[in-house]
């Protein structure tokens, strides 16, 4: 991601250390300037009130600037295989669709 390697698992571990994050998947999204940027699909714990910006700031305070998550989307669940592995392709496709839908409504 962003021509400098950012391991999704590293960012996921940081996000999962946040008390309001129940589950997460980090995927690279295409970006015109950077090539790819880290993006997170986040399942918040019941009753959590954090905003996307709160989550982005939390990660930024724990990693180098180039590693910080640039996009956060809240979801009800993270798609996983029967063995529990994150289905990153589905996460990425859902994020891209959500971004496209938001652009159509603005």
UniProtKB/TrEMBL annotation:
A Gene Ontology BP annotation from the UniProt entry: fatty-acyl-CoA biosynthetic process
Keywords of this entry: Cytoplasm, Ligase
Pfam family, one: AMP-binding_C
GO terms of molecular function: long-chain fatty acid-CoA ligase activity
InterPro entries according to UniProt: AMP-bd_C, AMP-bd_C_sf
Domain of life where this protein originates: Eukaryota
Domain AMP-binding enzyme C-terminal, first and last residues per copy: 10-85
Record-linked PANTHER family: 4-COUMARATE--COA LIGASE-LIKE 1, LONG-CHAIN-FATTY-ACID--COA LIGASE
Similarity section: Belongs to the ATP-dependent AMP-binding enzyme family.
Protein name: 4-coumarate--CoA ligase-like 1
